[in-house]
Amino acid sequence: MSTDHLQVKRGSRASFVATIIGLIVLAVLIAAPLWAGRADMRLMGELFLYLSLACLWNLMAGYAGLVSVGQQAYVGFGGYMLFALTIFAGVHPVVAVLGAGVLAALIAVPVAALVFRLRGAYFAIGTWVVAEVFRLSFAQVSSLGGGSGTSLPVSIVKSMTSGRQAREWLSYWLALGLAVAVIAAVFLFLRSRRGLALSAIRDNELAAASLGINIWRTKFVVYVVTAALTAMVGALIFLQKLRISPDAAFSVNDWTAFVIFIVVIGGIGSLEGPIIGTLVFFALRETLSDMGTIYLIALGLVAIIIMLKAPQGLWGIVRKRWDLQLFPLGYRVQQSATPDNHQQLHDK
Amino acid sequence: MPDTLLSTHQLCAFYGDFQALYDLDISVAAGEVVAIIGANGAGKTTLLRSIAGLCENESQQVQYRGMSIGAQRADQIAFNGIALVPEGRQLFPSLSVEENLIIGGQTKRHGPWNLQSVYQLFPILQERRQMPSTQLSGGQQQMVAIGRALMANPDLILFDEISLGLAPVIIKTIYEALPGIIGEGLSAMIVEQDISKALSVSSRFYCLQEGRSALAGDSQTVAREDISKAYFGVD
Amino acid sequence: MNWINAIVQGILLGGLYALFAAGLSLIFGVMRLVNIAHGDLIVLAAYLGLSTTIMLGVHPLLAMLVVIPLMALGGYVLQRGVLNHTLGDDLLPPLLVTFGLSVIIQNALLEGYTADPQKMSAGALETASLPLGDLSIGVLPLLTFAIAVLVIGGLHWMFYHTALGRAFRAVSDNQDIAQLMGLNRRHIFGLAMALSLAITAVAGILLGVRTNFDPSIGGARLIFGFEAVIIGGLGNLWGTLVGGVILGVAQTIGAQINPGWQLLAGHITFLFILAVRPRGLFPRMTG
Hints:
The complex is a heterotrimer of chains A (348), B (235) and C (287). Chain A is mainly alpha-helical and 348 residues long. In chain A, 75% of the residues lie in helices and 3% in strands.
């Protein structure tokens, strides 16, 4: 086989088309207040927040090999920091969302130093212990309502925007903006040198180490950045809910189980997976949520079957069938579209 | 012509995308000792692993006593009477010397080999029977590995590089013990890098080169230069 | 006096935690599997015990005779039917499959038994106590601790003195070579999970006699068991008992200081030991 007609590309026609469609969809979503009702916007806002959580969990588990079942620690921490910063320090809620991210990054540093001592599955349970410590600790803070929780004071809610509609629009846009920022951050990170190193780690930790890639530091950075962004998502979640309690803030089911199911069903280890997974998850939830526990059992079964039979998830099936990649992450070797040029070069 | 005990038919083996064996046809008769020689990476170990069931193959590619065993699991093949002495000994570190031997007899096949007869063959092992296998010298570990395979009372025993990494004096001891082992009517396949050792204990040989059989013949009469050619692939 | 009482109660509570941990430790040792659904299986066993006592009208401890074989059989089937297909170099499949299983068990229990807290009645055994100086020691906690010691001693003996234990160690050392010895690792793994869930059955029933339980408490039981395993050191069964005792004592002392600090004190003790002795107090193998 001649290699003359092969060339290495990052993008593809599909990823170009996807970019165009993505931008159109984004414009339509930004304009949602023009066409969507209150309930729809609320649902979409929630969807964006779950999408962000899914992308972040996927970055950790699918790329960095850090399988955490304790990300609710940072969702809850972010929520509580939003309440603490606005109530005690009088910070504007939007600023408090950023502040929650910074504080989460700070606390994630010693936490990482501790849980990184555990390997593999034991790391997973270790993160859960940390989440429990957070939950029990916040339940001790009586000025934030202790075990029964507290509501965001009306004065703070009112200070945010003029009127309820404006506040709902703002939370919608914040959720959308954060989701876009998270996807962009994960995408750019994975394209960077560090991100490529991550893929190398995932594929073979030993080989990556022998190539001089500092595994520990890369994983550490991923953990801390993910913690910060997860806390910002958490702050937005509880800015929507306006009420927080330890059990709701640190719920393993709401903030980790669902997120894991989303990523597994959509396709772990791909950027497209969490997006597909979130859409499927919300579609199922909206149609089957009346069934309560049965719905959850079905979700668990679907996740198990996918893990056993199609570990690359729904997106993996699509990618295999049509060789698609919407986010141009890797390098692709392709047959050149214009072999004639090469032929001429060759003739010289 | 004695009965064929084991034969491979166009045996192919893969590690992922890498093909290690190509259409290999070899056979071992009942009571026969066959040597497999070849350079590093020629596919010798893969051949033994395929026969023992540690590599996946198609069912009819390995025939044993009239059965197609290519697709059987290693534990099923063990019950059928094939034992492997793996490269690098690979004893169980959590088991004592005696436990390593006992677990070799897990298949409960009948025959001449049991703890007593193995200890008779390698008396040093009886002295050290309670020790963790990791505390033995390399040569003693090799004795345990051979004893462990014998405990299964196999009909066919596969030796993979039993002299690798051992001192010459130990190799001599082990090879002196071999006739006593094989003399009991056992068939054997011996993989060795040391060609003269392998030829001296075998009646026939196959020389592998890049996963194919490059030469086969009578161990005692083969010309050295033919082997060199097949071994290094020079024409 | 209260302090001594707290410590004694903590030691006895540690027996229960060691029982939570023993099954977890066993399957990690044999096949490096960490079962996220372990806590929910403990709760499942408690509910099976409850149903048995109600249907047959027997004492909860007698119900073990039904629940232990049932859980063991379920463990074997679960391992051969599902979990064996997840084992390999990749750690995600077993983790996520057992996580999915955890959610399924939890919700199935909710569906079958509702979220109302339940308890098994053990009659006079619940209130019986032995005077020891100024202390009074409950017979039930004492019995739980004795059972924990027996179970761990039995496991230890099985591991080092029986053919099954030998097979467990061989498969744990090297699956391929063990297979060459005629050991079918899928079957051995099935047996390990059966044994693990048999212990889980004992733990679940003792839990259900001791306190109220509902479908949501599995996660915390998994965490207690896990903490006991890590504190004691991986692969060391007696270490696991010590780990359970340390965790139990930390919790009861925490509760003695402030009732809200019981669980927090346990977790913080665990994190502290993780910080100063990352491999636990008496490690035998690496994670």
